[in-house]
Amino acid sequence: MAASLNKVFLIGRLGQDPKLAYTTSGMPVVNFSLATDEGYTDKNGKRVDKTEWHRIVVFNKQAEFCANYLSKGRLIFVEGRLQTREWQDQQGQTRYTTEIIASRIQALDPKGTSTTSPNATAPAPEQTEEEDLGPTFPSEVAGMDDAPF
Known about the structure:
Pfam families: SSB
Structural class: mainly beta
Oligomer: single chain
Strand order of the largest sheet: 1-3-4-6-5
Keywords: DNA-binding
Order of helices and strands: EEEEHEEH
GO molecular function, one term: single-stranded DNA binding
Protein name: Single-stranded DNA-binding protein
Shape: globular
CATH superfamily of the domain at 8-107: Nucleic acid-binding proteins
Subunit structure: Homotetramer.
């Protein structure tokens, strides 16, 4: 069998505060959404911005770090792998979700310096009414062009 690789690297902004929970065995686990964006100029010369939302899952000590030190709007680096889960909903339909299982999380902005854009809007993934997914275009808000790499 040929070698394969399942690796993801993302830089984006948290769309919500991390939600800490514990597995039945007592392992800490955190879930949150992460917004990344890209932009291009269409054939009419108009700027088009697109936001992609990612579901992030973090376990163990990294989960505790996220719960204690990260909050909505923070710019972070995520390293992990893709995983797709399957389950049955209440109507018996088979459902799927693809998540990033994070192995490394690093905050990229000093705590308390996150900002949001007042006029940015973008469609969000499946969300409940009370779920606020945060800033729309992280690179515009944080000046990601100044990233050190």
